[in-house]
Amino acid sequence: MADFDLLKELIVPGTSKIVLLVMDGLGGIPREPNGPTELEQARTPHLDRLASEGSLGLIVPVRPGITPGSGPAHLALFGYDPVTHQIGRGVLESLGIGFDLQPGDVAARGNFCTVDDEGRIVDRRAGRIPTEKSVTLCDKLRAIALPGVEVFVESVKDYRFCLILRGEGLDSRIEDTDPQRKAAPLPARAIVPEAEPTAALINEWIGKAREILKNERPANMLTLRGVASDPGLPRFPDVYGLRSACVAVYPMYRGVSRLVGMDVIEFDGESPADEFETVKSFWDTYDFFFVHVKPTDSRGEDGDFEGKAKVIESVDAALPGLLALKPDVLIVTGDHSTPSVLKVHSWHPVPLLLWAPGMTRRDAAHSFGETECLKGSLGIFAATDLMPLALAHAGRLQKFGA
Amino acid sequence: MADFDLLKELIVPGTSKIVLLVMDGLGGIPREPNGPTELEQARTPHLDRLASEGSLGLIVPVRPGITPGSGPAHLALFGYDPVTHQIGRGVLESLGIGFDLQPGDVAARGNFCTVDDEGRIVDRRAGRIPTEKSVTLCDKLRAIALPGVEVFVESVKDYRFCLILRGEGLDSRIEDTDPQRKAAPLPARAIVPEAEPTAALINEWIGKAREILKNERPANMLTLRGVASDPGLPRFPDVYGLRSACVAVYPMYRGVSRLVGMDVIEFDGESPADEFETVKSFWDTYDFFFVHVKPTDSRGEDGDFEGKAKVIESVDAALPGLLALKPDVLIVTGDHSTPSVLKVHSWHPVPLLLWAPGMTRRDAAHSFGETECLKGSLGIFAATDLMPLALAHAGRLQKFGA
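Predict the joint structure of the above. Result:
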């Protein structure tokens, strides 16, 4: 984990600009022994030029051998040890939709689902009902009141929503109600005695929700998962002395950025070019931009090797728009690997490119890819060490000791 | 150290098979500047093919610059930080001969020695008396009774034996009695006051043993070293969710395996081929096999460069027998380096080959050797991180966090 106390003593103000461009699930493995990965196959002239001019390396997201989810992987990139700081999905999802989560709030991620006449779940996603339908259902659920707490029900996307309770003495240590099989949803169960009253409130809410939904089709029931509270992390802008902004399309990544105290920018469009245009619009307002590209991960999870390579190519093609802003430090990496041959996240270290004109050594690497990164001057290192390196290359850390 | 708590949450059951093949003291250094090491000189077509297909790296056994003994080096391979978990030789030796050491037992390694008329040690190994002689002497020593404790005397090999005390309130924090020079054996001295009663018992035993041995030749006295108790380590099969077996010839390695809760397989023969045949016989019974090859280390300690290379070649030649079993993950490495030019263990990182079809990236390495390992995609890493990597490549860890 980045040593926040040490950094605090060393950070100096500056006007330099840092861009952290994250292609989700960027790392891959070859389709056949000794073949190229998706990144190595992609034609990326701009990234290759940056690789030749800058420094390469590989980052280990959490620990060797550990495959991270998106939340932990991003926390690590931001310098927070994700093993120490475990954040529940309810928190990430609520923050992701822009809900103003307060300390002490208890948030759960909800799924609308379909149950049969015996109450057993037959479709965990209620036929993936459209977002508009979910919005209507959430409106109805807002009628439910609970004693002594405020209740918020917010639609997310498709069949997903958030339930947030606000009040004194709530405790989020409560198990998921999704049985993960064809069975009735479980009651909310407290993991520790202190969470019993909160569990009771949630069960009262579920009971009333069941009544409201019972005649709906196909979304006639719901499950709750990832019950959690904001852990109150040290704020990223304070820790690093950077006015910091998130440019991301997906709620999850906006959520984790808000959790660490970044401003989350609203913008139209969702292509890399749209994102880079957004960075341009706010160039003077912030010192640090986290730009998130999702489809690399999505194509990886689809098992679409060529598709993932094409997404990388589309980012490369849009890159001149970002480079025209002349960032002092540009980092291009992923939060984790999603090899399309595995169709899931993996533990493999993630290729990293750090470009900072006049500030880096040459290395033997001349294009951006996993194998070239092994020749990089940055070596293989923990993702949580990335932000100090970014600050250093941006001239924002003074000497430690005399 | 591997994060056992984290792993516990992530381990999923599986049918995959992991083989950890350890050539003791595998790492070497060249005889002349820029020459090959023993491993690089050895003709190893099978290992080279695996290297080309798999991933290479180097492991640091304990800490940079620290030369480990065999016990700590193996604990590290198994994921236990050997600095945190220091195990006395008495424990390792007792476990190694199959003695059923219990929690609370105090075990010491004994050496028969020769003393002159003034009681000074003139041969620390009593002319390396044969094992049969040692067995006879141990039988005689079993006649010694001590108040309030059970006493076990077990022969090991040649001039070596184990003394084990069993009873309430014993404390193993006691110094060695070997003076390491031409002098009389030292009395057993307690390092902490709590160990005074145990030291007194041991000294009573030594006094009676002196009487029994005084007319023997050449083994007319003994010394005790490495007084220790089983530290009660977390059990390897539980920590990693693997039914785990040790296939090793030497007591020491069987001992450390038993210490962490592996099953120790009895088998005939002692060649690599015999060991691989044993793995085959138990292939369905276990998920993890630790296979230990000793002579690489022995030839290294002899200063026999060619001999060490030949041992490596003999392992390579037998390897098809192991590969025919189609392990999902095969790791080939050493516990530490024993460069034959140094004739002792050393601190140099140990070459590592991880072969897991379809799960690894290409790297620029195409044969198995120290220099090629520098090009490997696994980099240089702590030995204690090996087991999580093995589990990951075997598909036995689920994603951490959402």
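Residues 111 and 160 of chain B are 5 Å apart (CA to CA).
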